[in-house]
Amino acid sequence: MSAVEKEQPEAANTRFAKDQLKAFVERIERLEEEKKTISDDIRDVYAESKGNGFDVKALRAVIRLRKQEPQERQEHELILETYMNALGMLAA
C-alpha cells in the first residue's frame, strides 16, 4: 500500500468531519434564529397583554408558577408565607 493510498481514507475522514461540523454549526445557527423569532413573538404577546391592561410582571410570575409541579409550588408558597409571617408582613 502506497503513502497516497494510506492518506486517502484519512483525507476522507477529515472531509467527513468537516462536513459534519459544518452541518452541526448550520443547524445550531438555524435553531438560534428560530429561538430569536420565538423570543420576539413572546415579547410581542407580553406587550399586547400590557396594552390590554394586564400587569406583565404578575403575568410572568403566573407563567413561572404554572411551570412548577403542584407540590413544588405548594412548598414554595408555604415557605414564602412562613417568611412573610416571620417578618410581620401578613395580617394576624
Could you explain how this protein is built, in words?
The protein has 92 residues and is mainly alpha-helical. It has 2 domains: 1-54; 55-92. Helix content is 85%, strand content 0%. It contains 3 helices and no strands. The longest helix is centred in the first third of the chain and has 49 residues, at 3-51.
Helix content: over 70%
Helix tally equals 3
Tell me the β content. Answer: under 5%
Which H/E pattern describes the elements? Answer: HHH
Q: Quickly count the domains.
A: 2
Structure summary, number of beta strands: 0
| Rg of Cα set | 27 Å
Low-confidence stretches: none
Mean pLDDT: 91
Globally, the shape reads: elongated
From the N-terminal CA to the C-terminal CA, the straight-line distance is 90 Å
Topology:
Layout: H1 3-51, H2 56-67, H3 70-86
Question: Which key features would you list for this structure?
Answer:
92 residues, 0% strand, elongated, 3 helices, mainly alpha, 2 domains
